Amino acid sequence: MTQRLLVLQSLWAMERRRPDGAEWTLDRKLSMIRDAGFDGAGVRFFDDAYARAVTGFLGANGLVWQAQCYPQTVEDLAPILDRVRALGADHVNLQPDVRPYRLEDCYPYIEGWQRLAQDAGIPVHIETHRDRMTTDMLTMLHLLDRFPDLRLTADLSHYVVGREFAWPVSRENHASIHRILDNCWGLHGRVASREQIQVQISFPHQRDWLDLFMGWWDYAIRSWRRRAPPDATLTFLCELGPKEYAMTGPDGYELSDRWEEALMLKDLIRALWDRIEAAG
Question: Cα separation of 236 and 70, whole Å?
Answer without folding.
Answer: 19
